[in-house]
Amino acid sequence: MTHGMRMDTHTSYPGQRGDWRDTATRYALLPLRVFLGVTFIYAGLDKLTDSAFMQSAGSGSVGDIMRSARDSSAIPALVDLALKNPVGFGYAIALGELAVGIGTLIGLLARLAALGGALISLSLWLTVSWASDPYYYGNDLAYLMAWLPLVLAGASYFSVDAALRARRAQRAGGFS
After folding, report:
1. Exposed, middle or buried: residue 68 (CB in 10 Å: 0-12, 13-18, 19+)?
2. Contact status, residue 27 vs residue 95, Cβ threshold 8 Å
3. CA-CA distance, 129 to 137, in Å (whole number)?
4. Could you tell me which residues come within 8 angstroms of residue 67 by beta carbon, excluding any fewer than 6 positions away?
5. Three-class SS of residue 18?
6. Long-range contacts at 113-116 (CB < 8 A, ≥ 24 apart)
7. pLDDT of 116-128, one tens digit each?
8. Quick one: angle between helices 30-49 and 86-106, nearest 10?
9. Other Cβ atoms within 10 Å of 18 Cβ, number
10. Given a cut of 80, is residue 66 above it in pLDDT?
């Protein structure tokens, strides 16, 4: 009889099928990857198809958004840089979001795509949503934090990266 010791602890071993906890652990980042991928694809497409957004001035334009965020941003010089060519900046953000979203969703260069997503979120947090008070009302900081596990872990399952890894391991005779 043991007192104060759990005997039902769980350890997974390579090559064993495991139980539901192993499965949950393996696929834990998949919902986050799908959410961020779809969200960034949508955000990129939304910007690219919004004629009002891709203007240097006017209601809802990237230029007006940046001008209104300039004085309250953490790095006004970054906003000033974007304001030199607001339409070009708008296209860069939209295409960046689209590339990050696709890369994340299909798992192609997943860590690099996640790093791109984190950098986009960081730049938006330091400029557009920096003045959110309290800070947790600004969603860009939450997106930045959501990207970090994918930067660290990549896309291990259901991804182009995993398929390429498996193909390389097969060519090397099963050793990776």
Report:
1. exposed
2. no
3. 9
4. 83
5. coil
6. 113/150, 114/36, 114/147, 114/148, 114/150, 114/151, 114/154, 115/147, 115/151
7. 999 999 999 999 8
8. 150
9. 15
10. yes
